[in-house]
From TrEMBL:
Disordered: annotated segments: 18-47
Record's compositionally biased regions (Pro residues): 20-46
PROSITE patterns reported for this sequence: PROKAR_LIPOPROTEIN
InterPro entries: Integrin_alpha_N
Source organism (scientific name): Nannocystis pusilla
Highest taxon of the lineage: Bacteria
The protein's name in its UniProt record: Uncharacterized protein
Length: 285
């Protein structure tokens, strides 16, 4: 057998270049998975809100939520006005929502949510609406001093109110009503004005004593006035501030002030078979 030179044998083992072949390349790492997209925030709810403007900001009185088609109050109303929303103020100032806060009116134990807006302190009075375009649907009553209203009230109206009071409270006996307010505005959306009258029966012997009766009436052109709300033996009185079609169905809801000697509350009311139904309320004192 023929022998192979050792040098040739080594050369054949390591290749022609005299070096070992490089190792195969490592496999490329798998690409990292793409991050999941951030979930989109749900759009803010839609609807319309009536708010009270005060030194604490804007406090919700009542609102109508398109989702669920219902009236609501409190924080549900503030959800209709996220930061940046334009609001309309009764003072006429333009304003935007900048944040939320929690405040309590003196005499109210439970703090309530409020909207903070970029308006001067002197503009925070009366009421406000969201969206700002809702201002076109808010109708105000022109205030007149109660003494002037009573002085100018026709005898025929006074007699009709006395008749309605006697029917509501037969035990009153002789009734001499004092007419505190007469307001005329379209409530049912038919284009014709409706008359609202607020009246009380004072104690003839003591002006500081409780009223024997206090009532709010819808007065038709003829017939007995319709009693909307009343209380007996009270210092509470009623004054219609205006009307607003908050749910957009045509008839307007009543914007009502219920007040006594040391406190008051504002409410939004709708007509009901037995008088008024409170849709939302804000109280102070």
């Amino acid at each position: 057998m023929r022998s192979v030179p050792l040098a040739l044998l080594v050369s054949s083992l390591v290749g022609c270049g005299g070096e070992a072949p490089p190792p195969p390349p490592a496999p490329a790492p798998a690409p990292a998975p793409a991050p999941a997209p951030e979930p989109e925030a749900p759009p803010p709810p839609t609807g319309r809100a009536l708010l009270v403007a005060s030194e604490f900001g804007l406090s919700p009185l009542a609102c109508y939520l398109d989702a669920g088609q219902r009236f609501a109050g409190g924080a549900d109303c503030l959800d209709l006005a996220p930061v940046g929303t334009d609001v309309w103020l009764m003072s006429g100032a333009a304003a935007k929502v900048v944040s939320r806060a929690v405040a309590a009116c003196p005499g109210v134990t439970s703090p309530e949510p409020t909207l903070v807006i970029d308006a001067p302190a002197e503009a925070l009075r009366g009421d406000a609406v969201v969206p700002a375009s809702l201002k076109d649907g808010l109708v105000y009553v022109t205030p007149t001093p109660p003494a002037e209203v009573d002085r100018d009230a026709p005898k025929e109206l006074r007699a009709r109110i006395a008749e309605a009071m006697a029917a509501a409270a037969p035990g009153l006996g002789a009734i001499k009503p004092r007419i505190d307010q007469r307001a005329s505005l379209d409530l049912d959306g038919d284009g014709s004005p409706d008359e609202i009258v607020a009246a009380v029966v004072p104690d003839p012997k003591d002006e500081e004593a409780n009223f024997r009766f206090s009532g709010l009436f819808l007065v038709p052109p003829a017939g007995v006035p319709v009693l909307l709300r009343s209380r007996a033996d009270t210092r509470e009185r009623y004054a219609l501030l205006g009307a607003l079609d908050l749910d957009g169905d045509g008839p307007r809801e009543l914007y009502l002030n219920t007040y006594g000697d040391d406190s008051f509350s504002l409410s939004l009311e709708s007509r009901a078979p037995d008088g008024l139904k409170t849709l939302g309320r804000w109280a102070c004192g």
